[in-house]
Design a protein that fits this description.
Length: 401
């Protein structure tokens, strides 16, 4: 029996698995004995882009209900090592060695955590579902703590996409947690502007939202140290706080760096079929992979790219194994929709991020994406799952003006 091993069950890995099962079904008898195995540290698929939100009740979906209907098996285990020369993966603990005929690497990305004194011990994040739950539990615990400046102050480090969404959602999170009275949310970044990578078009909108929500900024500063009740900045300022949320940068899974082949910005370079360049029998998708679009732009670490990359990787890995024609990835549009809390959202189009809609109208689009568009079918229907996993790119989301 041949085996396709898929590492990761995030946006790329989940859709690679279902896409591979779809292609296996399409091929029929020749592929009937093909095993598709997913390896992930969690028994659920995390709608990771929602981890900053107030309500986390619907952001972790059991893999059983998504993979069982399409005949994909999965194991809950941490990947310890990948041996591409001998075609096997080692699972942590007593997970043993797992051989494969084809590998799909979809291990995603994780927060970049520099060696800042106290950061690992005293900060929070929303990188994973578990981390987001930990932050919410911490905020809830503050409600019963004696009033103090440190109790009522939240410092968000990193004014990129995630940091902005965390900071603008924080007033509502504090409200739900029962932290009343005078509250401060401070967003800081080493860059001289908020949203340095977002571009100049949307920056005035972001600044307007921050001002309306009462979010302070500290720009052009770095973090020198974090303690249980304060954060010290390179400017010399010390801010009393019991809540530091680290959102300062992402990097591909560290396992990517252990692999040979071609790399770009810390990710595996892949061709138009999602094959890892320079590696035999390896496909890659999502945040761990770098593909070039329209001859130039590199895929961004986001579910907007991870989901179609996964669908194409799943289709093509089975097609390649059985000698069928592969389908090239072609994503011909790019949008960004940035949540700005109770103020609304920012919707931009194109790589130059031209502002299309803002405020309440953009918020409707954001909520449609976060709560409907990026979810897999959850009715247990094999047909619906296969339809959603077809190797295609969805049209841009509809917007209101």
């Amino acid at each position: 029996m041949a085996r396709i091993l898929i590492l990761g069950a995030g946006f790329a890995g989940l859709w690679a698995a279902i896409g591979a099962a779809r292609k296996r079904d399409e091929i029929g008898a020749r592929a009937a004995e093909l095993e598709i195995l997913v390896l992930d540290r969690n028994p659920y698929h995390n709608i990771r882009v929602r981890n900053y939100e107030v309500d986390l009740s619907d952001v972790a979906i059991s893999l059983r209900g998504l993979l069982d209907p399409v005949g994909v098996t999965y194991r809950v285990a941490e990947v310890a090592a990948i041996d591409v020369a001998n075609q096997h993966v080692t699972a942590a603990g007593d997970g043993g060695s797992i051989a494969y005929d084809r590998l799909v690497l979809a291990l995603g990305s994780e927060l970049a955590r520099p060696a800042i004194p106290g950061l690992a011990t005293h900060s929070f994040d929303v990188d994973t579902y578990a981390a987001a739950e930990k932050l919410n539990a911490h905020l809830a615990s503050l409600a019963s703590a004696p009033p103090s400046p440190a109790r009522s102050t939240v410092v968000v480090v990193g004014a990129g996409f995630t940091g902005i969404e965390v900071a603008t959602e924080m007033p509502a999170k504090l409200e739900k947690a029962g932290v009343y009275g005078e509250r401060r949310v401070i967003l800081l970044d080493p860059n001289p502007v908020v949203g340095a990578t977002i571009g100049a078009n949307g920056r005035p909108v972001i600044n307007e939202a921050l001002s309306a929500l009462g979010v302070e900024t500290r720009l052009g500063v770095r973090v020198d140290a974090v303690s249980a009740d304060s954060i010290r900045l390179s400017s010399g300022e010390t801010i009393p706080t019991r809540t530091v949320v680290w959102c300062a940068g992402m990097c591909a899974s560290p396992l990517v760096a252990t692999l040979p082949g071609e790399h770009e910005h810390g990710r595996l370079s892949v061709d138009q079929f999602m094959r890892a360049k320079g590696l035999a029998h390896v496909f890659a998708a999502g945040d761990a992979a770098s593909a070039r679009l329209d001859g130039g732009h590199e895929t961004v670490m986001s579910c907007q790219f991870a989901r179609p990359m996964g669908r194409y990787a799943g289709h093509n890995v089975v097609a390649e194994l059985f000698g069928d024609a592969m389908i090239p990835l072609d994503i011909d549009w790019y949008v960004t929709v940035l949540d700005l809390g109770a103020w609304g959202a920012l919707y931009t189009e194109g790589w130059d991020r031209k502002v299309r809609t803002t405020g309440a109208a953009a918020k409707v689009t954001k909520q449609t994406i976060n709560r409907e568009r990026i979810y897999p079918p959850r009715n247990g229907s094999r047909a619906d799952l296969f339809a959603a996993a077809a190797p295609s790119v969805q049209a841009p989301p509809k917007t209101r003006t």
